[in-house]
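Final report, Chapter 2: Outcomes

The project's central promise was a pipeline that accepts a single protein chain and returns its three-dimensional structure in a standardized token representation, suitable for archiving and comparison. That pipeline is now operational. To close this chapter, we reproduce one record exactly as it appears in the project archive, with the input sequence first and the structure output second.
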Amino acid sequence: MITHIRHAGLVVADLEAALRFWCDLLGFQVAKRMDESGAHIDAMMGLEGVKVTTVKLAAPDGNLVELLHFHSHPDKPGWTGTPYSTGFTHIALTVDDLDAACQRLAEAGATFSAPPQTSPDGYAKVTYCRGPEGVLLELVEVLQP
């Protein structure tokens, strides 16, 4: 039925802060930025008067995250899902050096639930952190191919 996953979408309250986090800290690149409005987007979302900026961010491997900033229909930020919440909970990202990534993210204000942990089989080192908008990220450094 499907051919591939297209992107994961994330609604943000502060687009510029989100871009600094996803691009400057994590290394995503802006692939496309659009200001959208009109009948098509209204019909697609089932709303009236939608004005939204969408930014597609590409990871080094080509996978996409889409940031959406609604100018017309602001929501209350503060989703506080956990790794065990029902529904989508987190985005997992592979990093080259987890300790360096954690240090850089912590210096920028990201919070961590625990220090990095090595899996029992020694395959990977993993931790969770919270970025802007309370988004939960799983950061993984593969130790053994």
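Archive annotation: DSSP finds three helices and nine strands in the chain.
This record, like all others produced under the grant, will remain available to the consortium after the project formally closes.
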